[in-house]
Amino acid sequence: MTVRDRVLEALEANRGRYFSGEALAQTLCVSRNAVWKAISQLREEGYPIHAQPRRGYALSAESTLLSAQGIAQHLTVPGLTVEVREEVSSTNDVLRAAAQAGGLEGQVLAAQRQSAGRGRRDHSFFSPPDSGLYLSFLLRPQLSAQDALLLTTCAAVATALAIEDCAGVPAQIKWVNDVFCRGKKVCGILTEGEVDLETGGLRYAVVGIGVNLYPPPEGFPPDLPQAGGVFDAAPAGAMRSRLAAGILNHFFTFYPRLGERGFFAEYHRRCFLLGQEVELLEGNRRSMATVLALNPDFSLQVREAGGGERTVSSGEVSLRKR
């Protein structure tokens, strides 16, 4: 860990508290000049670090910048390696490349912004700077390709729980991968992976989560009428770091026993399509149906317009427009 990272770790752990350059140097076993250089670098990167004579340095308690050190302060699960970058094309793209190069399970990448965020079915994912949380993590699960849906549904529950913990607002889930608050979509999830053709199991999976923390200053694009934010306005302090850590804490608590589907009740309770008339999009086929139930494997049981019942395991579902 560099001096810059160690200084930021100390400041993140004690937001608003002043440390003298001498105290930081002694704690980190480096020179005062090395501390000064680290502080200068962090300021150049945009971190609001205050300095006062005879008091030293303090990271503003109101700082909203995301950092690996800030996320780590709130993590309760072991074994994760967190990295934060200023900008990437897509956090999923970066971790897929890492997976193909032999990257280990538990790698986490978050970004301040994405230049080419992606959603399901190759849709672009609106990724403005500052107002969103863009997070992906690498997994190497003992899981068949047929059970990969468990990763997405677990991530949806983890995100809903983290939102409720951090924001105190109820979160619902639209099958299969969208999280809603106050009737607006605040989160999309994209799970990608590679299948071993010999075993039918997953070689790796990357779970990507994009959360609209609050509406951007210019508003959401007109072609995203369902989009909304977890908060109505920018929350102060380390909320993005807390939310990122909360998602990871909840997901990786469920993950070791994923096959037991211990999160099914939480998903079912939040699944607001149950009993609703919906439009199904499966490949290029569109049809109307009524959602009867959520099955234990997270597929939907539906009744088609003609009266027949069937199971839907993939595709897109939207509420019927009236």
Structure description:
With 322 residues, this protein is an alpha+beta fold. It contains eight helices and 14 strands. The strands form three sheets. Strands 3-4-5-9-8-7-6 form a seven-stranded mixed β-sheet, sandwiched between helices. The chain has a five-stranded antiparallel β-sheet with strand order 13-12-11-10-14, with no helix packed on it. It has a two-stranded antiparallel sheet with strand order 1-2. A hairpin with a 6-residue loop joins strand 8 (184-195) and strand 9. Helix 1 (3-13) crosses helix 3, helix 2 packs across helix 3 and helix 6 (149-167) packs across helix 7 (239-254). The longest helix is centred in the middle third of the chain and has 19 residues, at 149-167. The relative contact order is 0.12.
Name the descriptors.
single chain, 322 residues, alpha+beta, seven-stranded mixed β-sheet, five-stranded antiparallel β-sheet, 8 helices, 28% strand
Uncertain stretches of 5 or more adjacent residues: none
| Order of H and E elements | HHHEEHEHEEHEEEEHHEEEEE
Structural class: alpha+beta
Give the percentage of residues in beta strands. Answer: 25-35%
Radius of gyration: 22 Å
Mean pLDDT: 91
Q: Multimeric state of these chains? A: single chain
Q: Give the proportion of residues in helices.
A: 25-40%
Number of strands: 14
Report the principal-axis shape. elongated
First-residue to last-residue Cα separation: 57 Å
Number of continuous helical runs: 8
Described by strand count, sense and barrel closure, the largest sheet is: 7 strands, mixed
Spatial order of the strands in the main sheet? 3-4-5-9-8-7-6
